[in-house]
Amino acid sequence: MTAKTPALVRYLLACLLCLGGASALAQSPVDVGADERGTQTTGHSQVLHDPDGHLSLAQADAAQAAGNFSALTSKGSTGLQPGAHWSYVQLRNPGPDPAHLHLEYVDHQLIELDAYSRPLGTGDYAPVARLSMEQPFSHRPVAHNRFVVPLTVAAGETRELLVRYGSRESGYTFPALRIWSPEHLETRQLRETTLTGFLFGGFFLMSIFALVAGVVSGKLLFYVYALYALSKLTCWSTILGYTHQFVLRDQFHWSLMSISGAVTIVLGLLFARLFLQTRAHTPRLDYLLLAMIGNGGLLLIAALFQIKPLALVTITLALLLYPVVIGAGLLRWRQGQTEAAIFSLAWGVLVLGLLMQALRDLGLVPHTPFNYYWPPVASFTEMLTIMFAMGFQMRRVYLDKKAAEQQYREHLELSKAQLEEEVRLRTRELEQAKLVAELEARTDPLTGILNRRSFLTDAAVRVKLARRQRKTCCLFMFDLDHFKRINDSLGHSTGDQVLCAFTDTIRQRIRETDVFGRLGGEEFALLVEEPKESVIALAERLRMDIAATQVPVNNRVVTITASIGLAFTEGEASVEELLNQADEAMYQAKLEGRNRVVEAGVAG
Fold first, then answer.
1. Residue 358 or 456, more confident
2. pLDDT of residue 16
3. How far is 189 from 180, CA to CA, in rounded Å?
4. Same structural domain, 143 and 216
5. Non-local CB neighbours of 487 within 8 Å, separated by 6+ positions
6. Are residues 458 and 380 in the same domain?
7. Cα–Cα distance, 386 to 225 (Å, whole number)
8. Tally of structural domains, the chain
9. Strand partners of residue 89
10. Which among 84, 363, 398, 454 would be 20 to 30 A from 544, CA to CA?
11. Do residues 44 and 138 both lie within one domain?
């Protein structure tokens, strides 16, 4: 039995090959010709997932022959899956001439692509192309920023094609090849490169504009924007394959896509934080932006050290949190920053572009040239819109600078008359200040009436004037009764209220021409120019008014009385002599029982 086993195995393999041939014959081929314009794609009808990425060509061929390949259920993408995917397709040339084809991979995220071909149902598969991002660009059979597989289908021939799409660990795969003739692909590539060159040139010009604005204004914001625009240029040129094609032709690595994306995310969030001034105006959102910047830093570390699972987690988190920046912009707009509304609009365009890329990567929307270029175009639109917002800020800086220059010119053009006017106004201010200082020096700080020195001075002038006019003056000496008891029992603040209430009572009853002052403590003096009979009546009215004065203190009422001494001008008596006479009379009033009026020289 052992000897027969190899023969049995060969028989089973032959049957398997026959079944494979039958399966292949059952496969509907794609008709191709010499004038393909990229309208047809291959690969979606029969796809096999290789989770480990170790399936060999023979094993893939056997799996296809056994019917293990199945149609892709999504709209173009396999979604985020580990390992590799295989696709099987038949290409038939019904025409009389050979069809020279370029089969273009539809996306840019693939790390490696291996293509194998054979005539339908005959022989073994032969390698057609082995493409990898980690190989020098010169190894590619067709110079294109995406993977392109050259293939020739003879007239009347049908060829089978097995293609392996490798993403390493985990990635998004679009198991489809767009069919072109070499001439049409070259024309399309030229047009596409021109348009993306315009896009990249726009990023570069915006960076230069911001750099110049930063030099002119000295603001950090413009420098960060310049770096942000340059990072956009680097990021999209790397993701779309142009960095490998034109710059790093021999040293390119797939991780550079994640590195450039991480740098762009970090710079974009730093710019948003500076532009919206979230640290000063929205501190809670600022903490969230800082966390997002930290997440971008983790993405950069994961890319540098090629930790693909961490890179996928952090990039997903970054994209999910991107709409937070729109909310911050709208909040700053409500707070009064006009440019924040434009910023939110720009960031919203970017988020829509990234959302489209996410939906395309997940296979929820079909993979089309429009969807393919929407994210970079949205990114460009975002930068262009933000540039308008930056223009508003630049205009504000310009207007501020212009206003400062105009103010400086006006200052230099001040005439002599204007300078003299300023000096005159300053002199007037100094004179007013001097008057205020003199007034403060003349008055009692508590009651606001004349202090002792000012009272004696003014009273002496009034006495001399009355003597020349042969008029009678009377000097009142007031002393508040039991004032020390008020201070001791109720406190000095209450005593101050009592003194002020007494002062207000007297000032309401005398004329502006009368001289009223505080001599010290609870002693006050008043000089009036009246006949003797009128003065005595005035003194009694003042005594009664004082006794009727009530001072509310801590839910109680304090009443006050005063002892009053009067001294009239006789002969050449001076103010000091009148003061002494009135003082003696006031003490006599106290001896007689307080709250009374006593005239000097008149016995009680």
1. 456
2. 33
3. 11
4. no
5. 494, 495
6. no
7. 9
8. 3
9. 161
10. 454
11. yes
DSSP H or E segment with residue 412: helix 369-412
- Do 229 and 121 sit in the same domain of this protein? no
Which is it for the CA torsion 463, 468, 469, 470, positive or negative?
positive
263 and 318 share one domain: yes
Q: Write phi, then psi, for 100 (nearest 5 degrees).
A: -90, 115
Give the count of alpha carbons within 13 A of 221, CB side only. Answer: 17
Q: How far apart are CA 353 and CA 268, in angstroms?
A: 15
Domain containing 124 — which CATH number?
Answer: 2.60.40.2380
Answer yes or no: do 157 and 202 share one domain.
no
pTM, 2 dp: 0.61
Residue 222 and residue 346 share a domain: yes
Instruction: Write the CATH number for 525.
Output: 3.30.70.270
pLDDT at 129: 95
Q: Which of 46, 73, 42 is nearest to 362 (CA)?
A: 73
Cβ neighbours for 483, distance < 8 A, ≥ 6 positions apart: 495, 498, 521, 522, 560
Cβ(37)–Cβ(181) under 8 Å? yes
Q: What domain range includes position 85? A: 5-180
Q: What is the DSSP string of 183-249?
A: HHHHHHHHHHHHHHHHHHHHHHHHHHHHHHHHHHH--HHHHHHHHHHHHHHHHHHHHTTHIIIII-T
C-alpha span between 187 and 185 (Å, rounded) = 5
- 9-35 pLDDT, tens digit per residue, is 333 333 333 333 333 334 589 999 999
The C-alpha atoms of residue 599 and residue 533 are separated, in whole angstroms, by 12
CB 153 within 8 A of CB 181: no
Domain end: 157, 180, 203, which one?
A: 180
Residues 317 and 390 in one domain: yes
- Kindly calculate the radius of gyration of the chain based on its CA atoms and give it in whole angstroms: 51
CB atoms within 10 A of CB 382: 23
Q: Are 184 and 37 in contact (CB under 8 A)?
A: yes
**107 is written with which tokens?**
């996306």
